Amino acid sequence: MPILEAIVLGIVQGLTEFLPVSSTAHLALTPWLVTRLGLANWSDPGLTFDVALHAGTLFAILLYFWRTWIQIIRAALGGKVVRFSETSDNERDLTPEEQRQERQLLWFMIAATIPAGLAGATLEKHIETTFRAPALVASMLIIVALVMWLAERVSRYQKPLPQITFGDAMTVGVLQAAAVVPGVSRSGITISGGLFRNFTREAAARFSFLLSTPIIGGAALFKLHHVLKHGLPPGEMAPGPSAFVLGIVVSALVGYATIAFFLRYLQVRTLKVFIVYRILFGLAVLLLGYFGHYSG
User: Are 71 and 104 contacting, i.e. CB atoms less than 8 angstroms apart?
Assistant: First the structure.
C-alpha cells in the first residue's frame, strides 16, 4: 500500500467515523474513486486495514471521554460520582436521582451493544465482500440520509443523556446493528435513533460515541484474533508496518479533533448539511457506476 494512501485513508477515517456520513462507505469508495478518476491506482485495502483505522479512532474516543468512562464505571460499581466537563476541571456533586441515572448508564450500554455484536458476528462474510459493493453503499448513503431527515423532523430535542431509559438504549442499539452495512453510518443511524427518542442533538451524539467504543474495540480484537489464527482473507494483501502505524496515528489525531468539533457544532446547528452531503455523494457514486459500470 502506498504511504500516501494510508495517510489519506487515516484522514478519511478520522473525519467520517464520527460525522454521520459513514466511515466504511468512504473507506470502501475512496480507493475506487481515486482510481476511477485516474488520480492514482489504489486498491481497496480490505477489512483488516479498515479495522486498524478503527482502532485509531477508538484511541480518540477513549482519550476524549476518559473522564466520562471513569465516571460511568465508578457509578455502575456503586461508587460516588460527580458531574464534570471533558474540557474543564469543574465538578459538582450529583443529586441522588442523578446518581441512580449514572449507575444505570453502563448496564444500558452493555445491553444496547448486543444487537450490533450479533449482527457483526453473523454477517461477517457479507461485510467483507458483498456489502462493500459501490451500488449498495451509495444506496444506503441516500436511504439513511432520509432517515436522518425524518429524525430531525419528529424529534422534540428535550432529553439530556442522564435521563436515558432502557427503551431509549435498546432503540439506538438495534439501529446500530444496521451499521454493519457500509453507507449506513454508525453515528448517523444511532444519532437518528437518539433523536427519535427525543434526545437533544448533543446528547444523541454523545451516546452514539460512547456506544461505539465497545463495538469498535470488539471488532478490532475479533479481527486481530482471526488474522493471527487464520491469516488474511483470500486475495487480501497486508499493508506494510509503516502504512499501519501511519493510518492508526492519523485516524486517532483527526478523530479526536472531529469529536471536539462535532459536539460543539451540534449545540447550535442541525444535521442538514450532512443529510445533503450524503444524498449528493450517493447520487454521484450511482452516476459514476452507471456510466462506468463500477470498473476501470
Answer: no
